[in-house]
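Chapter review: from sequence to fold.
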Amino acid sequence: MVNVSPLDRKRAAKAPSLGEMYDLLRDYVKQETLDPIRGAGRWMAWAALGAVALILGVTFLMVGLLRLVQSELFTASDGKTWIPYLIVVVVSVALVLSSKARIRKPSLHRKSRSV
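The token string follows.
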């Protein structure tokens, strides 16, 4: 007969079964793959919604600016009907360049702060 020490019996009793190992592996894979993908999906959905709202708002603002400049500064009899459009294009380009200069975060990865 094989002599088994009490320490070996204790280790054998604590060893996880095949089902427990499968559950542990499945939970780990979920935690490390699916959860980050879901988080990124939510982030992308909110970003897309914000982008659409921003585009609509800026478009309405630029059309309003065009109508304001057309009605207050220039009339159709002046022959300079292209100037309001040029003004709106210049303002739009200035907004794009200003927005581009304000972008600071090049990626989604958070950088840890070292103290």
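Two observations follow directly from the output. Helices lie at 6-14, 18-72, 83-102. The chain has one domain: 15-102.
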